[in-house]
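Exercise 7. Predict the joint structure of the components listed below.
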Amino acid sequence: MSTSSAPVTIRANAISKVYGEFVAVHGLSFEVRKGTVAAFLGPNGAGKSTTMKMLTGYLAPSSGSVEVLGKDPGVAESRIELARRLGYLPENGPLYLDMTPRELLEFFAQVRKLGEIDKAIDRVVQQCAIQEVLHKPIGKLSKGFRQRVGMAQALLSDPDVLILDEPTSGLDPLQIREVRKLIRDLGQQKTILLSTHILQEVEAVADTVIMVHEGRLVFDGSVDELRDGQTLEDRFYALAGAPAKAKAKTTAASTANTETN
Amino acid sequence: MGIDWSVIRAIAKRELGSYLGNPAGYVFLTLFIAATGAGAFLQPGFFARNLADLALLNKVMPAILMLFVPAVTMNVWAEERRRGTDELLLTMPVRDIEVVLGKYLGALGVYTIGLGFALAHVGVLAQLGDPDVGLMASTYLGYWLVGVAFVSVGLLASMFSGNATVAFIVGAVGCAGLVFAGTAPWASGIVGCGLIAGVATLIWVAVQGNTDSAGYVAVGAGVLALIVWLTGTFESFQDTFGLLGVDRHFYGFGEGIVRLGDVVYFVGIAVVLVYLCTFMLGRRHW
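Solution:
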């Protein structure tokens, strides 16, 4: 669990992403402190994945700036240094379907220039429980196993920061429980930002919540602050049901609360 | 810090593996050997000439390659983008140039393997006559160098779309421009207009950071180039763009002559286009 005195690991400064006429992310600003599991909450199409892509350096923001572990992913050298300490699970867990999990992990270990490849692979295979499918083509694996292989890939370099885009998407209830437990365990030492639109997930794993709607920040604070004496579901509907502009006050108030705490 | 060849090797190996682990790769190799074999031996003049060489294949080889090479490269980026795996690759601690070179060398490796199988044609010639070893070596070096250039054209084309068919068409049109430039004045003029439109569009996309209005820029630059060409404002328009034609640079290799200028032409195209791919990748604006 983080404290407000812990150093900031992830910082977004008024980032926007514009595609032609469409503004996917509007001047988003937030911080995630070291040792925090932060849930990036929002309905589908809120701009969560786009923001995560900007944090990892895959996409360049149209305006604003990003800093992760003190590095700007927009600068080539900085991005490479950051990538060594960053694990990323993109949305829908894209993988090379023609490879086996073992081949895939070996490939990314080589690309990451890891020293003890076998040791690193053994560790993530244990963590993500993928021993039984290690030599089967990924294309023939179930969605749940694919997602776990994606998690194993993200954990391969034992990163300081994990950015996970809907890590429990497509998993069955048992697998969801395992992945959530893994995230909680990892959250003891690492900074984790995970996107989700599932409220139970927020309650189960998150220390803090950053909620976006229509590309705008609508809440930034702890889970208790989000609850605000109501059920999370009611608060989610209240924040995501109305146009984002109307909720500027909520955001400002929540930010003020966070800073006070 | 310089380029890390171990990363490039890993990416190239993965490209090669993905191609050769796929039935489509073997279909390509088979069709490539069949097409080049037909180009070499099934033409009416082959036996009448009574010469153990590949002169007839040399005439059609650039045209064969302008279709086959984009078929190899069409998936290089398009497939990554379609599956979303580019997101993994481009968030690894690797330089853009390492990714581009890895993919380029992987695709070139597939073409080189295809060309290796096509060495069987020399075996056929050896059965029929006594082919000149030096001439065969320079001819195959020429084929390979055409591939060196065309793979870079296909790689760049593959970056434009997540759709492999579009990538193939764009790649084939790009290679066709190089094949037809210099063959006739009108062809050189059209290639010149296309090239000017393409360069203007690339500059526009690079400066803007997105593809908004890129179509207008392409059409505008193309029309402007057409006016310059047809009104004779720049008299050497056709001759200048005719110099870009593959034919005039490939011809010498088929005659057993290896000119440094020709090697520089093919390698130069690859260097420029690989650099362009790296530049576009560095923009991270798709």
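Discussion. The interface with chain A takes residues 1, 4, 6-7, 10-11, 14, 17-18, 21-22, 83-85, 87-96, 209-210, 212, 282-285 of chain B (CB under 8 Å).
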